[in-house]
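Researcher: Before we compare anything, I want clean individual predictions. No alignment, no superposition, just each chain on its own. First chain goes here; please echo the sequence and then give the structure tokens.
Model: Echoing the first chain and its structure:
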Amino acid sequence: MTRRKSFPVRFGALTGALLYGVLLSGCAQVVPSGAGPGSVSRPPISPTLPSTTPPGTPPPANAVALGVRAGPPITDLPVGAADGAAALASFRESCPSVSKRTDASGLTRPGDWQTACTAATTWPGTAVQFFQTYFEAVKVGDGRGFATGYYEPEIAGSRTHLPGYEVPVYGMPADLVRARPGDAQPNAKGQMPLGRYDENGLFVPYFDRAQIEDGALAGKGLEIAWVHDPVEFFFLQVQGSGRLRAPDGTVMRIGYAGQNGLPYTGIGAVMRDSGLVGTGPGQYPGSMQGIIQYIHDHPVEGDVLMRRNQSWVFFRELTGAGPLGALGVPVRAHASVAADPQFVPLGAPVWLGLDRGEASGLWIAQDTGGAIKGANRFDTFWGAGDQARLTAGGMSGRGDALVLVPKGTLARLQP
């Protein structure tokens, strides 16, 4: 639903950070929380970059390059029975992927997970005992965690074009392609950019948000649904997945299919820079709810504001249990978290000890997000419904973060 945000070409079905990461796009700070459960107990495997790193020095590429230290024994972490059971269920679902996937963090190898994954299928004891038996905790970098929240939004929508449902939900267009080598410059990741070939055969950027809203894709048979409120749909695009509830009560679930290749602009950051966000007279709260209220109160200015974000997300219909994360398995409320795979192995358990009690506990890294970047940056998933929306929209937790890896990982990495 991932993150902010510039949307990556492919991200998890739900990329998170709806509030601080996506909307305020980088304005949230990771604040030290003092000594906590991730206290240092051995030298780092790879030295953490010093604070005197010269300006312009590239950041560490992954967890091992940044530096990894041993965390406390897992027996010292206050994992509740329900918390552990939800994490074990989600870990079990992740095993088919985690035991095959290359770990970009450098921490683990696919075979490292086999013992724990095999045991998870028929584990006879408590979930807490499972994690204590097969995992050890590590602190990546300074271990200062920052977590936002995301959820599966539900808005008014219909499969058919009904009166009052005028905003189209587009499926993936066939003319959205990557440039052929030689037709454009590769992007920062070395990939050819997304765009389209015009009537003259020239590669050009794809239609932006304003062009699409003005009808650039109308009449091409790409509509998979229609929604009532363009503002609610804008935020559903930020999330990357959601539910459309029709007037007859039926629900259609849609998920991320692709993106137009243009940069994302966090409109919360634009509002902040314009002095519209704050606690003063005439200002709006810096939350999802506050930003939506501003747009509804100022429809003309709000439309201009949303068009500042050129990114457009295309959708597909989802079937099955729950929205899918980057691992291709359902993300679960209070159990799944989005993380940066350069610093956290996708499928790994994550312990968060935050100043927001509801977000503290054991999670499983099953998703990614365009703004969920760097070590100890997480986006917690809260499910669907009004309470999930409220919790996710206001989530900003700081504290300690630990990654749980198969036992023996630290010994193998130790120089």
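Researcher: Okay. Second chain, same rules.
Model: Second chain and its structure:
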Amino acid sequence: MTVIVQDNGSLHKSNKTCQQWQRWQAQGLFLFFLSPYCSEMNRIEEQWHQLKTHEIVGRMFEDEYDLALAIMDGMEARSVKGGYTLERFKFNSA
């Protein structure tokens, strides 16, 4: 069994996502949604705050790709500074 904890972002509750829930549950994947407006329960929010305040503050990006690269570089820099390993993986969206 695998549980994914998510916030209530519209992407996470889109029609396309909702259509997959039963199939995912049959495969042992369950989604758990945090309460709305409860950033203190969402540990990634602190990381986003640190990333935006220290790693990419004041920068402008040409497009989403450049922003994505800056986020990856920033997370790598934070892992080096913090002395922890960082693993990046890509979900197969097919």
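Researcher: What stands out in the second chain?
Model: The chain is about 45% helix and 10% strand. Additionally, The first strand starts at residue 2 and ends at 6.
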